[in-house]
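sorry for the late reply, my laptop died twice this morning and i had to redo everyting from scratch. anyway the thing you sent over, i finally got around to it. pasting the sequence first so we're on the same page, its 218 residues, then the predicted structure underneath. double check i copied it right bc i was rushing
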Amino acid sequence: MRDEAERAAVEPVTAKAYRVLERLIVTLELAPSTTTTEGALIERLGLGRTPVREAIQRLAWEGLLEVRPRAGIAIAPLHAGDWLRVLDARLGVETILARSAARFVTQGAAELFKQAGNAMQEAAASGNVVAFLEADKALDDALALASDNAFAARLAAPLQTHSRRFWFRYKADTGLAESAGHHIGLVGAILGGDEDGAGEAAGRLITMLRSNAEAALR
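ok and here's the structure:
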């Protein structure tokens, strides 16, 4: 994977604004149920008004922010029970993406899977939660690319972001190795062109996360 400096040099500023703001929400640096302002976010990100505004609009559409005219921007609340709803929605669409990725994966997408998988294993071994989340997102991006199904990928992306946020809140302190193992199993099935195996691996990943969510609810 590119290091942070190289990625920043080539990444469009609007995409960077979205990535950074999404990470602040997922890692709870922008705390659930609090409010902020567009101006405060522009200052915090150090980027222009237009890219930050576009990132805010996209995250609002994804349900992570709520823009309240004349009252600021509200960060979405975090209720443990909602994690189960997110995962129920993920199951079907990610099974489709995984099977499709195993069928259509290209050499370029395969390389992205390998890079993200290696980064995830390294992050799990070192206990670096933020690096683990970045690798998880890179794997999701590789899955979207490999699947050749933009419709399913657009459905999955916000659900994946919500799920990362819940996982960071309720499981990040103990779940790195287990989660990495399930992700690597999914990658292996996709790179092996095993459609059935990829679909089953996606199901096992969601099942594991669902057990995490049920424990958080208890």
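The two ends are 38 Å apart (CA to CA).
thats about all i looked at so far, will dig more tmrw
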